Amino acid sequence: MDIPVAFEVGALIVLVLILIGDLLLILKRPHIPSTRESALWVGFYVTLALIFAAVLWMIGDPDHAVEFVSGWLTEYSLSIDNLFVFVLIMTQFSVPRKYQQEVLMVGIIIALILRAAFILVGAALIENFSWIFYIFGAFLVYTAARQVFENEHQEDAKKETFLVRLLRRFIPIHDTYDGAKLTTVVNGKKILTPMLIVFLSIGVTDLIFAIDSIPAIFGITQDPFIVFAANLFALMGLRQLYFLLGDLLDRLQYLKYGVAFILAFIGAKLFFHALHVNELPFINGGEHVEWAPEISNWTSLGVIVASIVVATGASLIATAVRKKKVPSEEISEN
Fold this sequence. Notes:
Blueprint: H1 5-28, H2 35-59, H3 62-92, H4 100-128, H5 132-149, H6 152-170, E1 183-186, E2 189-192, H7 194-218, H8 224-235, H9 238-245, H10 255-277, H11 297-333
Antiparallel strand pairs: 1-2
């Protein structure tokens, strides 16, 4: 059953307005959110996503709801992984904590624009070139391998350092911040602040993650509405999630392996799907491959949820074990 067009348009308008309203709160009342405030906002957006899935189930069918939840969880886990790089950027440029909300707001806006553009491009490619699934699948498997075997976050930090060196070579930039302003006045002369570099660094990071995340969501559903809705819900509450997790991000040491497994799984699913929809001239005179497994939406959802739960659980257990070892080692040394 198709989702009514009126619902799609109305839902996207409401969701975008909610996201914009959340971001405008920062400008109206800039502050460092407490843990309780951040938890309430994150809980609100998670509940809103589940309600949205229930509505999709009622007006569409179970497949649409499962596709949305699978896509939302995938994009959400990738967004959490994105927060690691945001922390590196904030630390590297010594961004005062009270200005970090503004930085995150700009990052979310850039991410929303980039993802919308990539979704349109991806939908057009899939519509006209079904063999693009092979490329998407191979790219996701490559991304998963890179995430496992490379220290991806440190590599991203090095890229930002190169960007900083390049900017400082051609543009005079002041060493201190002036609130969240991009420019300040020094000795009667207007000069750029480090906030410009921070915004550019966030933008580059969002571009990299948009390239990674959009093929992943298209591996779950090819419905542009569900793809964009899943990305919107993944971005909602991302700012509050940053402050809620805070130092806990360092404890989620195995999350990247869970994300990598999800990407590899979706890459394999895309490859099998391509075998079904593309005629291969070297097999049976140009027929579809019927023996390739077709992975159901429910299976995808189960794998995604299990990967996140196992990775998070393993990280928390490892952290607890480390905490127990540290006091015992200190006692033995004394």
